[in-house]
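Internal tracking record. Fields below are filled automatically when a chain is submitted to the structure queue. Please do not edit lines marked as system-generated. If the sequence contains nonstandard residues, flag them in the REMARKS field before resubmitting.
Queue: standard
Priority: normal
Entity type: single polypeptide chain
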Amino acid sequence: MKTLAVIDYGMSNLHSVSRACEHVAGKNWKVQISSEADAVMAADKVVFPGQGAIGNCMHLLKTTGLDEGIRLSLESKPFFGICLGLQTLLTDSEESGGTAGFDYLAGTVRHFKRDLEDPNTGEHLKIPHMGWNQVRHNNHDHPLWQDIPDNSRFYFVHSYYASLENSEFVAATTPYPQGFTSAIAKDNVFAVQFHPEKSQHVGLKLLENFLDW
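SYSTEM-GENERATED OUTPUT FOLLOWS
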């Protein structure tokens, strides 16, 4: 039986993520919530969900030793990041007074500007960006987009967004009001800013595609 490790660093909504993974997993998969680096490194695939402030997240990962498990997993196996699990993969973040990430992809996590307006209506756009929004595929052929229509709507809750130096690794963008990076893909790694576990059918399909990847 293959193992999917859902990383537990003490700050995330693990149970909704693990339940969603269990819902789409076949009989050959065991979904395991793990706070041990050894268990993460031993798993066949890894899901890294995250919420809260990135400063606290990186501190807890280093304190528990999970940071090393994540670094090794990024190099060696299918890896799926969710929300903060995407943002930590960049070089650094403006959040928490400036926080270093894993530097898997060159870039900075930036705060949305506070004076955002809808270009069509002039309406002020709230921060955090919260609710359903479109996800526009950049790489239509990526296996994780299989049977997920372009411009499908996923559920977001965030005040910061990933700004990559190399657009080659941007797998999707979302308008708010301009297109920000809502998914990234590089080699064995795929990560999203939205919450697939809260995104109904298309979110479950994305997780299913990851298990089939």
